[in-house]
Amino acid sequence: MNPQAIIDGLISGSTIGLGAIGLTLTYSILRFANFTHGDFLAWGAYLTLTVAGVLGGLAAGLGAPVYPFSFGWGLPLAMFGGVVLTVALTLGLDRILFGRLRARGADAIIVVMASFGASMALRSLLEFIFTAKPAYFTKALQIAKPLGLGMRATPDQLLMIGLTALLVLALHLLVTRSATGRAMRAVSENPGLAGVYGVDVDKVIRVTWIIGASMACIAGVMAGLLVQIRPYMGFDLLLPLFSAAILGGIGSIPGAMLGGLIIGLAEAFAVQIVGAEWRAAISFIILVLVLMLRPQGLFGQREA
Amino acid sequence: MELLAYAAFFLTIALTYAIISLGLNVQWGQTGLFNVGIAGFVGLGAYVSAALTTPDAAERIGGFDLPIALGWLAAMAAGGMLALAVGLLTLRMRSDYLAITTFGIAVALQLVFQNTESLTGGAFGMAFIPRPFAALQGQAFAFNALNLALTAAVVLVLYLLLEHLLRSPWGRALRAVREDETAAQALGKNPILLRIQAFALGGAIMALAGGVQAHFIGFIAPGNYLPMMTFQVWAMLIVGGSGNNRGAILGAVLVWAIWALSGALISEVFPADQQARAASLQIVVIGVMLCAILLWRPQGILPEVRSVSRHLGHRNKDK
User: Residue B252 domain-assigned?
Assistant: First the structure.
């Protein structure tokens, strides 16, 4: 067994965890399994790429790599723009599709179906605009530095693990300590009752989309920086995202992150044993095991 | 003559989709079960039937040279068993867990089709699947027309069976569970058992469709069973009218026609290097169409017909 799998697993697990956070929040607060979420990751990556292209046109110096990373100041700036645009995309989608179905009192499963349709449309739209050819944030190559114990990582990868830890901590504090977080938990318990108590349910829904979309965009950029950007990148991550959210327990932010890391690590180790072509099956096996043994997940509450 | 042969070919494919759509109608239309892994069930049926009926091949296991009808039956059994397993696992839990699990099933089966070369032929797929009326393959029209007749007969038999079944007390109990689970339970129906039965029946029908399709075309590959197929079948049922068997068939033919025509249009209008790109627009259109129908006409073209027991006699006409 190669210890490098630990680093590989932590890195892909960070991406999965960040993506799963948005999924678990929409699942618990808006009460539907959002099949579009994977495509938010892909859109986040492509929107960031577009902003980076525009910024690069305005000021060429922004693209120059900042030691020791493979990208320049342009990328964090562009990611900020990408986050704003991804948030706008999700809020727009909520306004024209999910919000209307919600207002009509449609069954959760109808909303799931609509998200499935929207996911296909969004993904194919990406393919139409950017073609199926993979794109890259940077062409710079990085040498992985030894960390000891036979493990290696590039500076980019270490930065991502650090950034993920910071984001999860900040979100966890937001949800557990702030008034907004309290309102979010109230709506996830019982939207009707929360409304009666004066919680602004529409605002909570907006905050949920904003958090979910921002994390999705950042996860998409990370996945794009580590591997490549493809229209199908988000769709391919959808099953790991769902498995992580369910493994962690629906509605739990630390749960989603931990679920993501577990799946990332399991994939990395499994790839060494059964070969990379079976990678996508790992999250399915974990999903089935969780549903059989502990359907409420690690941190979830048993449903009444 | 060539045009007629093509029309028969087109309709035969459309009718294989109608079979899938009828299967989905049992799961979704009647019982409200959301299956996102349709392509997996169809693919399973196709591969099982192909493995049993193809002539022996050196490079892979299987190839038992059995009759086609036996392949179809085995396909149904396999699809039913898989659906049964999925149903037992998830149907006790909240409804979207079924959606996520079926999505995973389709991904996992796709990997199996791709990676187990010795069983499925891997990425190259399986060829030489026996076709019904193979002796006539030389005459395109006669061959396609006979296959069309055979597929139409399968659709007709299924349609009559399902209509009968769904008007039976069992069918009414399914709809009762869909509409109000607690009320159905209070009347002594077991919602979980009913759901599992309906899901297994639907899965078996989808797998049968896979078998029928594989034998008509004579060749299968993993690329035929992508999420795209699941998505098309959903569009078919929702457009045609979920809950209505005739709607399911109509939707299948209609959406397949839109698909084939827009595909032909794209290959006419766009230059060769842009065609793959333009083809993605087809999917955007169908996705938007699906969402639009869910928003504005959720009942589809042919809405569900209210059916009550015939023993209620004149009271049927009340509404």
Answer: no
